[in-house]
Specification:
Mean pLDDT: 89
Radius of gyration: 24 Å
Oligomer: single chain
CATH architecture of the largest domain: 3-Layer(aba) Sandwich
CATH superfamily of the largest domain: DD-peptidase/beta-lactamase superfamily
Shape: globular
Length: about 400
């Protein structure tokens, strides 16, 4: 046997051994999906808009009174094809960018409602970080219900076991969690061991938050986007309300806004049954739009004050007086524009958006399988700006004042 042949056979044997090892690792990971975040990251890899099909779910019940938006003239295509600056055909742009739903509500009427890429009005999609805006609403509801005293409550009032590891947890308040200024370590590495992967895939998020969080700086000093914060918010809500976060969402938000069908909230695992607070609300696009409409109206829905108006203002104001970032408040991103004034948005991975433009009485929702090649933080305000300019021009031509300055 020649040396070359022996080397070739040796290499083939090594490759076969490595393939067998990889197969064993994959099989072990597959069998550990219910108990290991690392296994989930190996098998499932990157997050996906259909992730609600992978995780166990808890129902967020809708009520009997369903709210339906009135339809504006021209619905469902009540926007000019060239509404978005630099794009001659709106529908084609949305289709090509991986958009699954695009909804425009102006003056409480549906102007535009189109679905793309095999999706329809009944399609369900996961929220990703849009869930954080719902979390904020639930804290506001719990304060209104006097189950939580205020955002100045220390986290340890509800999760005292954190003090067993570090007395400094006493300084972290609910406000710090909501405004992403808790001072907790959070490293996005994109690896199975990174905080970003573990807070998304870990099958026991309560344990992760209580045992693995680490204080790296004093709270209130710096904005640092951190998915440990919403997990702690979920634990606070559970303990303050005495019910699952999904049930509290159903009672305080989902039913009062008139959601047309039940939503679901993805859970970390069947064994622990804890909501994926950073990302896991799954629902139809039109029902997500109703959260935007609720906030547009200062927490009111059909004559009923669902959330305190003061909470809506505090959650979405563009200010750094009490929070570390002017661009982020309580689970909402905040913006300002010469034409649009102050506006705010719930933003999720893969291009999920609920934009609220108070000056234009406008809500825009976009769902998608990814962001495509669109800069949505410009694209959607461009549409809002054009609608605002058109409205002001019409009012001026009729010698009327805008009733919503």
């Amino acid at each position: 046997m020649t040396t070359a042949l022996r080397c070739s056979r040796g290499l083939a044997a090594a490759v076969a051994a490595l393939a067998a090892l990889a197969g064993l690792i994959y099989l072990a990971a597959w069998l550990s999906l219910d108990s290991s975040g690392i296994a989930r990251s190996i098998i499932w890899m990157d997050a996906d808009t259909d992730d609600y099909r992978r995780f166990p779910l808890r129902t967020v019940a809708s009520g009997e009174a369903h709210f339906t938006f009135a339809k504006a003239p021209g619905y469902p295509d009540g926007l000019p094809a060239n509404t978005a600056r630099g794009h001659d055909d709106l529908a084609s742009t949305l289709e090509e960018s991986g958009t699954t739903a695009f909804i425009v509500i102006m003056n409480d009427r549906l102007v535009y409602e189109r679905y793309f890429n095999g999706h329809g009005q009944d399609s369900v999609q996961t929220s990703f970080s849009v869930a954080k805006s719902f979390n904020s609403a639930l804290i506001g509801a719990a304060i209104a219900d006097r189950l939580i005293e205020s955002v100045e409550d220390p986290v340890t009032k509800y999760i005292p076991e954190l003090l067993d590891r570090d007395e400094r947890f006493r300084a972290i308040t609910i406000r710090h969690l909501l405004s992403m200024s808790s001072g907790l370590r959070y490293e996005e590495t994109g690896t199975p061991w990174g905080d970003d992967t573990q807070t998304y895939y870990n099958p026991d998020l309560r344990r992760l938050a209580v045992e693995e969080t680490e204080i790296v700086e004093a709270p209130g000093r710096r904005f640092h986007y951190n998915n440990f914060n919403p997990i702690l918010i979920g634990m606070i809500l559970e303990r303050a309300t005495g019910m699952s976060v999904s049930d509290y969402l159903s009672r305080k938000i989902w039913q009062p806004i008139g959601a047309e069908v039940a939503a679901t909230w993805s859970l970390d695992s069947e064994a622990t049954g804890f909501e994926k607070m950073e990302s896991g609300i799954n629902a139809r696009a039109i029902d997500f739009a109703k959260l935007g409409s609720l906030y547009l109206h200062g927490g009111r829905r059909q004559g009923k004050q669902v959330l305190p108006a003061a909470w809506v203002t505090e959650s979405t104001r563009r200010s750094d007086q009490t929070d570390t970032s002017i661009a982020y408040q309580y689970g909402w991103w905040t913006f300002n524009d010469e034409v649009l004034g102050d506006y705010f948005a719930a933003i999720g991975n893969k291009g999920q958006y609920i934009f609220v433009f108070p000056s234009g009485r406008l809500v825009i929702v976009r769902h998608g399988t990814g962001r495509g090649n669109i800069e949505w933080l410009r694209f959607i305000p461009d549409i809002a700006r054009q609608l605002r300019v058109d409205e002001m021009g019409l009012l001026k031509s009729l010698n009327m004042q805008n009733p919503f300055p």
